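Re: weekly structure request thread

Next one in the queue (329 aa):
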Amino acid sequence: MKIRDIDLGKMPLFLAPMEDVTDPSFRAVCKPFGVDMMYTEFISSEGLIRDAEKSLRKLKFEESERPVGIQIFGHAVDSMVEAAKVSAAANPDIIDINFGCPVKKVVGKGAGAALLKDIPQMLRITEAVVKAVDIPVTVKTRLGWDESSKPIVELAEQLQDVGIEALTIHGRTRQQMYKGEADWTLIGEAKNNPRLHIPIIGNGDISSAQVAVDFMNKYGVEGLMVGRASVGNPWIFRQIKHLIETGKELPTPGMQERIEVCKAHLELSIKWKGEQLSIREMRKHYSNYFKGYRNIKPYRMRLVTSDSIEKVHQILNELAAANLELSNT
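Done, posted below.
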C-alpha cells in the first residue's frame, strides 16, 4: 500500500489517533511491535491558529516515529487551511482530517462527525486543505450520521475527487458512538467500488489478531487501523503481523514482558508530561496491561490509586514476584 510515495508495505497496520492516549510515550511503546503508521492525538484547528500551548505540543514527534501523520479537526475552511499549514511546517509525512470524532464537545462545534450532516462543507474543507499543503492529505470518517444516513460509498468517491490520497473508515455511525457492532459491509462496498482507486483503511472492532485477519480477508481493505484494543495492549500489532505472515497465532505475552513494557511506558510518559500528570494518565492503561490474570484486582486497585512513581514500581515489582496465572490457562 502506498500513500503517494510513502510505501507502507502489504497490509500495513495503523495506530488510531486517540485523545489523551496516543501521545509520544504511547506511540514509542507501540512502534516496535509492528505499527506501520501512527498519528498524533487529534488537534483542534482553532487551537493551532491561536497558538494554544496544548495544541502546539501535540505537533511534536520523534524521527523514529516516521511515517507519522498529524490529524486536525475543525468546521471552518479558513481555520482548517491555516491549521494544515501550521501542521505541515512541523514536517509530518501526511495531514489527516478528522471527520469521524463523535464526542459532544467536538460535534457540538460543528467539527468531527458533525460534518457528516454537511457533506458540501466537508468537501470544501478537504479540497482547500489539499490545495494548501504539499504533503499528502488523508481523511478518517464514519459510515454516516445515523442509521438513516450512511453515505460512505458515495462520500469516498467525492473525497477522492477533491484530492485525498487515502481514506480510513470507522464502521459505525456517529449515533452509535462506540456502541454496538461495527458494520464492515459498507467498508467493503466502498473498497470494492470500481471507481475508487485510493487505499481504504478499515477501522472498528479489531479486537484480536484473528478478527483483524478475518476482516482483511473478507473485505479486502488495503490496511487496518487499531484503536481502543491497543490501549495497554501494544502486543496486538505483533500478533496481527505474525498471524498474517505465518498463519499461526502468537501466545499471550507473559507477566514479565507486560511489566517491562508498562514500566517503559510510564518512564517515557514522565519525560513528556512530568510525574504527577503521567501517573494519573497511566491509570487508564493498567487494566489492559494486566487483563486476564487471576487475582489481579487488588494490584490494579492499588495501581490506579498510587500517587508516586515509587509506589507504582513497588506494586509492579510485587506483581513480578506474585506468579499470577491467566484465567484462561
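The first strand starts at residue 2 and ends at 3. Residues 48 and 56 are 6 Å apart (CA to CA).
Next request, please.
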